[in-house]
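Methods: example folding runs. The two proteins below were folded one after another, and each record is reproduced exactly as written to the output file, sequence line first and structure-token line second.
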Amino acid sequence: MWKFKNKQSERHLFILQSIFLNQQPLTLKELSHLLECDIKTVHSTIRDINNFYSVPTIHIDPKTQLIFSDETSDFFPRDIFLSFYENTREFEILEYIFLNGPVTSNDVCENLFISDSTLNRYLSHLRKNLNNYDITIEHNNLHIIGNELCIQNFFVQYYYEKTSCTMFDDFEAVQKVIFSMFKRVTADERYILFRPYFNYFRWIIFVALVRVSKGNLVPLAGELSEPLILEDFILDTEFMQLNHYFGRKLQKIDCLTDFAALFFKETNTTYQAQLHEMYQAFDRLFELDLSESSLLSISNALYGVLMSYFGKSYFLFNTNLYRFNTLMRHFPTSLELTHSLIASLFESLGIKDHDRLYDFIILILDYTPGIYESFQKHEKRVAVTLFLVTNTTHAHFILRLLTERFSNLATFTLADSNTLLTEHEVDESIVIADVATLKSENLLIIEAGLIYSEMPRIKHFLVEQRNQELLRT
């Protein structure tokens, strides 16, 4: 993981990841301990996030001290990470040197409006971080140097994560050419299963183009069993656009076949038989009934990418862990089974990279047709009785709204109108009844006027109830 020069940036990122990515329930005291700071600092950090980031407001419950947000089911953390990347000075300096180097210190200071002493402090910190990746920044004319394959891996991962969580549209002209090329390549039936991975492909090509345009040689990561000549998939006019953008003559066949090998390489491992056996077990477990040819095709594709770029450890934003945690809220039983199955495979193969396990789970979900429908059959829903506080005319509207929003978590039944509670019978007139109340049934007590603002707490309640149901079974 990247170590930030600014301690405040680290705190911001940790809270954003805990609340919005990992969906981690934390109390004020627990967060203070994890951040190694006092409670007053936690309060001020949360206040800063609420003021400066485009995120649902973060709250601290005055009674339980539990930290929660106004997050709704349609929230995705694009804006927070766009702000985080683009407002973090060290990333700004790093990108400028990567794209424009070699440059002088004066060039960087003038273009980024910083002093020479500030730049030197950031450069010193950047070099400490980059040393962990076997690369550094040259001292005289500032540019990126080191192991060329490590440089490629690092910046591909950097841009991939940055664009995974934002609607990032820099380098538009280059991206259009790469997208056109990718469509032509994946029209070939040998490469059709690579279609979900355009975001990786485009940054592998882009980073390689940047390095080649500066006179560096991009090393081949492996040899293809069937050479893929990308000159067949790129138009001359498009190649002229790339040359114009990078300001020099690129050798078409040399660079493009090398880039293709970086992306479409096959790994020389002995895992194929075990992986195919695991995927057959996955097929049986979720009753997918895939044909033998489909099973073989998908397991071969998974084998082809298992040890490639799709399994790199994350740099800042672990996209696949975020996707896994999001899906866990909908399919806890199914994903626990999937996790156990793949963890056993990794143990037998001797793969110890924890992050790669989540990458591979998401890879399988992306490749497997009908998997979410099969997951749905394995999930239990908690039965919830819905009571309303006054405003009884809205009863059926609220029932329909909750069913639409949370059908994956619960089935709702509206209590008989004779048992509707009045406002004075409900403690504080707000939300969720104690489960032990009224014959220990699962209950929701809701005031109609608060239905939208209480959605996050309702969701938390339903998740907790379903987890209790799963524990009992």
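Second run, written to the same file directly after the first:
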Amino acid sequence: MSTLSFRFHEAHPIRVVMVLDEPWFVASDVCAVLDYRDAFNAVRILDADEKGTHNMSTPGGEQRVTIISESGLYALVLRSRKPEARQFRKWVTAEVLPAIRKTGRYETPAAPVERKVATPTEFLSLPFIDVNSPFRFWCLPLDGFPHPQRPLLRLLRNSWPRRVADGPQPCPDPTPLINSASRSARR
């Protein structure tokens, strides 16, 4: 068994004892943070498997302290009237438990994806652009953004039927435009 310590936001130290690789919290520390007046009565409501005792060295010497499991900690937090505990209870009951009921699990929301404007060199080095392909000249990066070039716009404009009344229009063969686009872009 090893003893660890961590702090809540209010800088109240809570001693933690590791028992069989599981954290057990010193009940008097938890009750002080949660504003319970009497740790004995607060712990009394917990099930037998959620509480226990542990010998711990303190400045006053070796003492037997009451410890509570993680499940017991959550039970005390959910019963607390402290505003921070109410926020935690609201999060658990309004977000976590409904998500578990609906999907079978709770996942934290994904971090927003940071969008970055690519420089011309970065844009050409992207995996979907083959630097030897004539298509790379269709969208040249200007000011960090890819801009379609005239041959691409011409190809797209000519490949769509003009009007339905004219009847079906065959799509032109894009090969000449591709070759001319690559030649004009290389100049």
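Comment on the second run: The first helix runs from residue 27 to 33.
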